[in-house]
Amino acid sequence: MSLRASLCAGLAYQSVRLEEPVISRLLDFVALLDKWNRVYNLTAVRDPEVMISRHILDSLSILPFVKDGDRVADLGSGGGLPGIPLAIASPNVHVTLIDSNNKKTRFLRHAAATLDLDNVAVIHNRIERVQVDKPFSCLMARAFASPDKIVHLAGHLCAQQGRLVLMAGQLEGLDLTQTPGFSLCSTTSVTVYGEDASRHVLVFVRN
Fold first, then answer.
1. What would the pLDDT profile of 32-71 be if each residue is shown by its tens digit?
2. Is the per-residue pLDDT at 196 higher than 90?
3. pLDDT at residue number 146
4. What pLDDT does 170 receive?
């Protein structure tokens, strides 16, 4: 099966409807990620076919939790996940990719420019040192850290009544109570095409 066929099958499975130019741009991102990954080690996944499910489709599983017009901060963005797939699929959402690794932020800037993503910004800094003039309406993290650590490092970046959206695997052993200033709003199990591992999306709201 071609990468395009795999992506389209996954989108249909996850009930995500995207126009053809958006699908093409997602595939262009996979090609960039694959190329740069050979030198910069952006992800442990080496097979573009696996990147489709484990990175692109997994990232897009967060779409129902993002609102039109959101200002999103992707914390510890790494190879641009989930931020770049989100920005490609949701042009009315502005995404700021934050990472402290210089090689990774170089890739992120290159990807945003190459893919002509006007709704993407990149910050090279440690999360706890980032200061912004206007807080974000949504903080997002994928396999970055525990909820309490994320709140400690990045809570100051979230607007009042803003959301912290975390992508997690197994919930067993995960402490969801030590998030001062944030209340757990919902826990949703999600299914990703081609992936057997358990997936959950946790949404916290800043008090």
1. 999 999 988 888 899 999 999 999 999 999 999 999 999 9
2. no
3. 86
4. 78
- Domain count for the chain: 1
Domain that holds residue 161: 3-206
Largest CA distance in the chain: 47
pLDDT at 108 (0 to 100): 98
Indicate which CATH number applies to the domain containing 86: 3.40.50.150
